[in-house]
Design brief:
Blueprint lengths: L1 H34 L4 H4 L7 H4 L2 H13 L20 H27 L10 H20 L7 H6 L5 H7 L3 H12 L3 H16 L4 H11 L4
């Protein structure tokens, strides 16, 4: 009974932190877009950090959460509408795209801070450490995946303005399908393993013990 209660605490806490990180991801896009010249984001309420303003229920909440619960890549969904024509340069377009994944990296570092600063006893069984370790992993995984130069992801948004128009036009018909193909490819393949190992490298660099990540994973996916 005690284990079930701890698992539920971990599950709820991780889910809540993940939802907050989704909002931070979108807010980062909007904040940089405003700095780059798109003042329309302020009129749309994106700079108020009110989740209801830029949280599209399906693309920014339901779909990412379902994907996460299925054991897939934790992918932030896009719901902030940026008017790229208002941005002052291609460099600002790139900066806006990179702002979201950077927000995930910042959240990852914040979650890993107690480990990096040596505040955590390796023998501790407190669920908070499992929660923070697993959240660190989710944030790194989301950032890595979202930085891939694939249409529909921020990585492609960062390089798109620098591509020849002929290349952009050739890619356009496949934009809506590319991300789904990539999600399928990432499940149970060497590509998915590469993302996992790369995220683990980030955790190792920040001093997050793998045993806490394991405990967080097992508690979050308690039904498996």
């Amino acid at each position: 009974l005690l284990k079930d209660r701890v698992d539920m605490i971990v599950f709820i806490a991780v889910l809540l932190i993940w939802i907050v990180s989704l909002c931070l991801h979108e807010y980062a896009h909007a904040r940089v877009a405003y700095a780059g010249g798109d003042e329309s984001v302020a009129h749309k309420g994106y700079l108020d950090f009110n989740p209801l303003r830029y949280l599209d229920v399906m693309t920014s909440l339901v779909f990412p959460i379902i994907l996460l619960l299925l054991g897939g890549i934790p992918l932030p969904g896009g719901a902030v509408w940026i008017d790229r024509s208002r941005l002052r340069s291609r460099g600002w377009v790139t900066a806006v795209s990179l702002a979201g994944p950077l927000a995930n990296v910042v959240v990852a570092i914040a979650c890993a801070a107690p480990f990096a600063l040596g505040f955590v006893d390796s023998d501790s069984t407190h669920p908070a450490w499992a929660i923070l370790a697993f959240c660190t992993y989710l944030q790194f995984t989301a950032a890595i995946f979202n930085l891939l130069p694939v249409p529909g992801l921020d990585g492609y948004g960062a390089i798109e303005p620098w591509l020849p128009y002929a290349v952009q036009d050739a890619i356009q018909p496949y934009r809506r399908y590319a991300i789904f193909g990539l999600l399928i490819l990432s499940m149970g393949t060497g590509f998915g393993k590469w993302i996992f190992l790369t995220a683990l490298g980030g955790l190792k660099a920040l001093g997050v013990p793998p045993e806490f990540l394991r405990d967080g994973y097992l508690a979050f996916f308690f039904w498996q």
